[in-house]
Amino acid sequence: MSPELVAALEALLFASPEPLPRERLGELLPELSAEDLGTALATLRARYASPQSGLMLDEVAGGFRLATRPEVAETVARLSAIRPSRLSRPALETLAIVAYRQPITKAEVEAVRGVNIDGVLRTLGERGLIRVFGRKREPGRPMLYGTTRAFLEYFGFQDLSELPSLREIEALVASPRRPQRVEDDPGAEPETAEPAAEPAAEPAAEPAGDLPLVPPAAAAPEGRT
């Protein structure tokens, strides 16, 4: 049995969204006789029979498919538990302002948007898309916000030089590169949210490996005056 044909069969089973019957597999792989197809399926079944594999060849609904083993079901279930939701429009607009004007204070963002952003800012922080990395040298020393590496990963950018226009960002969020369709961010508050007090305690410093993407030229390092 040619290893290339077994590999082709494996690729078909992996790519198909539904089980493939023998007849359909025969149409897709005309190089294989019915007997050879049975041998190739047996080869794959033996390959995935090892407990060291997280996959198995499953025969179901009159066809064959590659599926995850029951033993790893709990781990696989975590995917749906951590799948990120789509950003709401208020969150998107706030994130765009922070991305293009960082380092920037909450008051400066609100001056551009014209609404209170406490809830949206909190949501973006919880999602890891923005963070505090200093304070502005002015009375009250307000916190300065900037984007994170998670922001770049979310939108598929190499660096901030690839930032598109706001309209292009909206298109990216409406049709994300992820295969799943996700719903609007349930954590984002409406634009009419009541003002909330800015937290007095500063967040813990992040590891050195996740430094601000734009140097805070007007910022004072945390903990200094």
Write the layout of secondary structure elements.
Blueprint: H1 3-15, H2 22-28, H3 34-47, E1 55-60, E2 63-68, H4 73-82, H5 89-101, E3 104-105, H6 106-113, H7 118-126, E4 130-136, E5 143-147, H8 149-155, H9 166-174, E6 219-220
Antiparallel strand pairs: 1-2, 3-5, 4-5, 4-6
Helix pairs in contact: 1-3, 5-7, 5-9
Q: Can you give a write-up of this model?
A:
This protein has nine helices and six strands. The chain has 225 residues and is an alpha+beta fold. The protein has two domains: 3-80, Orthogonal Bundle (Arc Repressor Mutant, subunit A), CATH 1.10.10.10; 89-220, Arc Repressor Mutant, subunit A (Orthogonal Bundle). Strands 3-5-4-6 form a four-stranded antiparallel sheet. It has a two-stranded antiparallel ribbon with strand order 1-2. The longest helix is centred in the N-terminal third of the chain and has 14 residues, at 34-47. It is elongated. The protein starts with a helix and ends in a 5-residue tail after the last strand. The model is unreliable at 176-225 (pLDDT under 50).
Structural class: alpha+beta
Major beta-sheet overview: 4 strands, antiparallel
Query: What is the CATH-assigned architecture of the largest domain?
Result: Orthogonal Bundle
Radius of gyration: 25 Å
pLDDT below 50 for ≥5 consecutive residues: which ranges? 176-225
Mean model confidence by pLDDT = 75
Strand content: 5-15%
Structure annotation, total helices: 9
* CATH level 1 class label of the largest domain: Mainly Alpha
Overall morphology: elongated
